[in-house]
Amino acid sequence: MSRKFATRGMVLPLSLLAILAVLGLVTTLGGLNQGLRTQIYRTNNHQLSFLIAYSAFSRVCAKVHAFSWANRPFLTEPYTETKIPLQGGHYDLLVENTAGKDYQADVYIRTHLAGISRMYFWRIRFNDDLLDVSNNIIVELYATPDVEDFPTINGPRKIAGQVEEMLAQRAANQKKSDVLAAELMKSVNTKSVIEKMGARVPEDFQQEFPVSVTEEMMEARVAVAPPDIQAPLAAEKPTAPGPSSSYIGIGYDSISGNQINELSEKLTAASEKLVEATDKAWTEIDQNGVDGIPAATEQWEIAAEAKQETYETLDSLIDESKTGIAEAPSIEAREAIEEMVAQTVVSSMNDITTAIERGYEHLVTGEGSYLEGLTTSAAVESLLNDWKAAEERTQADLDRLTEMAGDIQGYSMTSEVSQKLTDTLASAQESLEKIQDAVAEAEARLAELKELEAMAAAEQAAASADVAETEAAEEAAAVSAAAEEATATVEGEME
Fold first, then answer.
1. Phi (first) and psi of residue 79, to 5 degrees
2. CB-count burial class (<10 Å; 0-12, 13-18, 19+) for 333
3. Domain extents for the chain?
4. What is each CA distance from 197 to 172, 204, 266, in whole angstroms?
5. Model-level pTM?
6. In Å, how far are 66, 67, 101, 124 from 71, measured between CA atoms?
7. Mind listing the pLDDT tens digit for each residue in 143-170?
8. Alpha helices in 293-366 (DSSP H)
9. 249-360+388-445 has which CATH code?
10. pLDDT of residue 124
11. Domain spanning 1-156 has what CATH number?
12. Run of H or E including 436
């Protein structure tokens, strides 16, 4: 009896030990799996981050090739790009001339992917040789410094000093290597070459290289087919947030300004298209008169679409710039965004007013003389309605331009841009006053013609009344004469 109870008493401790062993095994395997997933995540993120940075670096080299070194984008000041989206992440770029070096440039690139930021640095040298047309950009040095060292336009350049030290050390090492190479070239004995290089001298052998026991065992084994590797899971991709919710990246985000460059280019293209289409439309009218109306109408429709696109892109650019300004890491970066956006916005606003002026040059000046030639109130009233519609459109344009000027009020801008903004609003106001004067002139002309037409109608009515009265009197005289003649006839017969 006691033996039975003793046996039963061992089951519970053994079960607990088994459970603890299983839990330990599960925890160990889970930790190993988590570590593997973290390594895969970091490796993929690192590789894709480098590809993003190298793509940006290739774009810089392409710009130098396209514009030539004399017209490089960073000729007079650093060339910057902020938060450019690429491959699920984005990058920031700063390129500038290397201080104290001719034909050299420093390229700083900071990538941000799935919560992790990294920085890459290239120092390039432009080979100004007319005989070298295939590869005239040479990488002097590549490095991956700390992401916090990404410079601002007027900030310090911590990497510059380190780069100079590395280049100096490399030059010193190269000198030692060249001296050693010169000594080795004089040696004809292989053993002496190996000894001078400080390497291990291999033992002499007579027949063939010895074969290890492991290799002999492997020769008898059947070759194993390579495994079928499945595609990575969504959680293991570089763009995933990380292996677990508790993972926290470096936490150093890039400066904002996403899509500012793209919106600026789109805005410039739309406003230039507006001016071009408007000019083509009125050129058709100038050259072909009434026969050019169909072709001009097509261009006016294109201009209307371009104006709508210009206004929409202006709103988007201003909204995006406010986000970039709010997240700028420094005063210099904020002022750079403000100046670029202000210059682009004012330029497009000026294109809008140019298109308006181009139309009123013909609407007022050209058709103003035509107004005097209209002889009916119906024709003048039709023209007046068109001018009133133009006045409403111009008032709407002026209101939108004034609103946009208020949106960028306080932005950093040069004196030339500020003056251009003032001139643009004044030009829009002048165009509105022109069409208002034309409307007033047309209204006066309409009232004049209506009065003349009323007088002509009254005179015609009076003339018609005189003719009717004359005809009635003549008819009465004829009846009276006929009556007298009849009376005389009757009297003659009675006699």
1. -95, 125
2. buried
3. 1-156, 249-360+388-445
4. 18, 19, 61
5. 0.45
6. 9, 5, 17, 16
7. 999 888 898 888 788 888 888 888 888 8
8. 293-326, 331-360
9. 1.20.58
10. 92
11. 3.30.1300.30
12. helix 415-494
